[in-house]
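Hi F.,

I've been meaning to write this up properly since the lab meeting, where we talked about keeping a consistent format for the predictions we share between groups. The idea is simple: the sequence comes first, exactly as it goes in, then the structure tokens exactly as they come out, then a line or two of notes. No screenshots and no reformatting. I'm using this chain as the first example so we have something concrete to point to.
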Amino acid sequence: ARFHGVEPFDMANGQPMRKLKDNSYTKVFSDAMLQLAGEDDKVVAITAAMPYGTGLAEFKKHYPNRFFDVGIAEQHAVTFAAGLASNGITPVVAIYSTFLQRAYDQILHDVSLQNLHVVFAIDRAGIVSGDGVTHQGIYDISFLRSIPDISIFSPYSLENLKNLMQSALQSEKPMVIRYPKELLPEKLDEIRQNGRFLCIGLGSIAQVAKQACLLLNQEGINLDFLPEDHVKPIDDKIKKILSEYDKVITCEEAILPGGFGTSILEFCNEDNIQCKILRIGIPDTFIETGSREEILESLELDVIGIMKKIRSFCEDA
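Output, unedited:
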């Protein structure tokens, strides 16, 4: 299992040359699972042949009777979780975004249709460095948003992820928390200065979007910025302030069709909110291999690219 995806290692002893960093999202998820399982003996963990990649190896050591590796069978993992949830257990299903695609039918019919409390911890959400076109976790928002009675969250900081895990386990409905492989900040604050324009940065792209806003404000463009973790339902805080701005920009590390920005467009249309909206994200396409930084730059989703798009949008009368 350790050689599922091999990084550089020491030829003498086989040990990896780079250890999982303590402040990675996967490590924070792993620590949160240990803490929450210690507080509630109904919490169990399920993975599909990825205990190391999803950070559940430590959970397995501490709670072997509450850990289930079902093998490469994502569909079974989700239906198994539904069965446990229907009997009062709180299952956390940890699966990479790209592999969750295999279990769409089970999420829809076995979990959501029954309105069962299953928590989906979707790792590798967003652009994934090095694993190629098949492993990009950029489609989950679009294919999950259409499912009734499911809540979807995309944390923008390590602190945010911890809080979301706590609230997800206390819920009574299907919950999705999608988070990236890459490191993100411990905390991320908003910018509120009564600007004419609002930029909303979702999840893993929020830090990049905020940096773009800070630089644009130095140019006098006058942007407010909100980091956002709600995908579905839309955050009440956002609903209340959209009408205060002339123009709104949404940023997401996911494909645009059916995504977070689309949900903001739909809400504004239904509530007759007249602000103009620019959606920044990944176009309707597949993504090839590369580092996250290289791919963001090629898609104009790095700081410079986002600045360029926002500047053009805000300066256009």
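Notes:
The two ends are 56 Å apart (CA to CA).
The first strand starts at residue 43 and ends at 47.

If this format works for you, I'll send the rest the same way.

G.
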